[in-house]
Design brief:
- The complex is a heterodimer of chains A (212) and B (209).
- Chain A is 33% helix and 22% strand.
- Chain A has six helices and eleven strands.
- A six-stranded antiparallel beta sheet of chain A has the order 1-2-3-10-5-8, covered by helices on one side.
- Chain A is globular, with a radius of gyration of 20 Å.
- By secondary structure, chain B is an all-alpha fold.
- Helix content of chain B is 69%, strand content 0%.
- In chain B, helix 2 crosses helix 3, helix 2 packs across helix 6 and helix 3 runs antiparallel to helix 4.
- Classes of the chains: A alpha+beta (212), B mainly alpha (209).
- At the A-B interface, helix 1, helix 2, helix 3, helix 4 and helix 5 of A face helix 3, helix 4, helix 5, helix 6 and helix 7 of B.
């Protein structure tokens, strides 16, 4: 049961295509797990459809239809996307990882915490975090909009408890200390549009090396 | 056209009140677009595609140019979007989207690809069975509610409508988008939610695909 959802304005911004790729990935992954947010998103898409429908038409090239039909006839058979393998990552995340959990190339960032940076366009970053049960993620603030989506296990912080499918939305006003629950490793997808700002000295010194 | 009062239309009427001839004409146009879409999906009907093209291609071009594409770039993109409409026609689900909604999502993704050179992560598809699973009553109600949304959008105060259009043309940041509140999406959202529930049910019963 998902308790922490996306906001209407984030879904609207995703529907309108106004968010960085990293944030799009977190939202697409959450929506894959959350039927409520999917329904909200598709209603935002309906708004986009209404905008398209009422858009002033612009004349096409004379041979536009013929050229389109030629594209259809000339197209190679559509490439099937790789079938989703069984696991904990929904399809959009598997696309970026190249598989499920077993395909992630983790790197240690100290304190037992591991991370893997995913390839998204500049300006925002996406990473998977793996936090052993009972461990804390270093205390950090934010300089932008951070989304943290839980894929396995759970963590708790000042905002409550977050389990699989829950997404935490944090901005610069938030400083929190997420702690993973005892039990299986907590695995999250975290996206930020600015590097994290750690509040203790050593992690801050490490930041340039960790790319976070 | 002649107003036809089937039980479904009657029920929709009771929900929304009588919306008059103009609304019925729009219903009619919308069901024509849906029928064209399904003809493409089911029979690769080129005449239906040509009709759909005549309706949407000039609007998509307008949409792309408002979003900052040059004319030649927009033309190329329109052809690509409409070719995708043909290819993915079988994915169109009239219980969850009307044709404009569905084509909008294709055009938006192509625009991100074209103007930002980025991938666009999309939610995992909900698998659904072929034709027998398209519940016609659900589809019709969803279609009419989406029409109603287009009317409501047209009736919004100029300033609010501009803001929504700017969001979709790509002129607003996320924090500016957060200022858009009170969108009339409640009924559509609950219809889509219902359609998703039905899909989940049929999936768990091990039905098609």
């Amino acid at each position: 049961m998902i308790r922490h959802h996306l906001t209407e304005s984030l879904l609207l911004a995703y529907s309108a295509g106004q968010l960085p790729e990293a944030h799009n990935l977190a939202i697409a992954t959450h929506v894959s797990l959350c039927d409520d947010c999917r329904a909200q998103l598709e209603s935002c898409d309906a708004l986009g459809g209404a905008v398209l429908e009422t858009c002033a038409p612009v004349n096409l090239a004379e041979d536009s239809l013929a050229a389109t039909l030629a594209r259809i006839r000339g197209a190679a058979p559509t490439r099937q996307t790789a079938p989703r393998v069984q696991g904990i990552f929904p399809a959009p995340l598997q696309d970026y990882v190249g598989g499920d959990l077993a395909s992630v190339r983790w790197r240690s960032v100290g304190g037992g915490v591991q991370q893997a940076i995913l390839p998204t366009s500049r300006g925002a970053s996406a990473r998977l975090l793996r936090i052993p049960g009972g461990k804390a993620v270093p205390d950090h603030g934010h300089r932008g909009l951070e989304l943290t989506l839980v894929l396995q296990g759970a963590f708790s912080d000042e905002d409550g408890r977050f389990a699989r499918g829950d997404i935490e939305i944090a901005d610069q006003s938030v400083t929190h200390t997420p702690t993973a629950e005892p039990g299986p490793d907590c695995i999250c997808l975290a996206v930020t549009d600015a590097p994290l700002r750690f509040n203790s000295l050593i992690p801050r010194m490490l930041q340039p090396f960790l790319k976070i | 056209m002649k107003p036809v009062t089937t039980p479904v239309r009657g029920a929709v009427r009771r929900e929304y009140g009588n919306r008059g001839q103009a609304a019925l004409a729009q219903d009619d146009e919308n069901s024509r677009l849906v029928a064209q879409m399904l003809a493409i999906a089911d029979r690769q009907d080129e005449a239906a595609f040509a009709a759909l093209f005549a309706h949407f291609a000039p609007r998509i071009k307008g949409f792309l140019m408002k979003s900052g594409a040059q004319a030649a770039q927009a033309e190329d993109c329109v052809q690509d979007v409409m070719a995708t409409v043909w290819r993915k026609a079988a994915m169109f689900d009239p219980t969850r989207a009307n044709v404009s909604t569905w084509i909008f999502t294709i055009a938006r993704n192509r625009r991100i690809d074209l103007l930002r050179r980025e991938r666009r992560p999309e939610p995992e598809d909900l698998p659904w069975g072929p034709e027998p699973d398209r519940d016609q009553v659900d589809a019709m109600v969803l279609q009419q509610e989406t029409d109603r949304l287009t009317e409501v959008l047209a009736d919004l105060p100029r300033e609010q409508r501009d803001l929504i259009e700017q969001a979709y043309f790509g002129d607003l940041s996320h924090s500016e988008i957060a200022r858009i509140t009170g969108l009339p999406l409640g009924t559509i959202k609950s219809r889509i939610r219902l359609a998703i529930n039905k899909l989940r049910q049929s999936m768990s019963q091990g039905s098609p695909r």
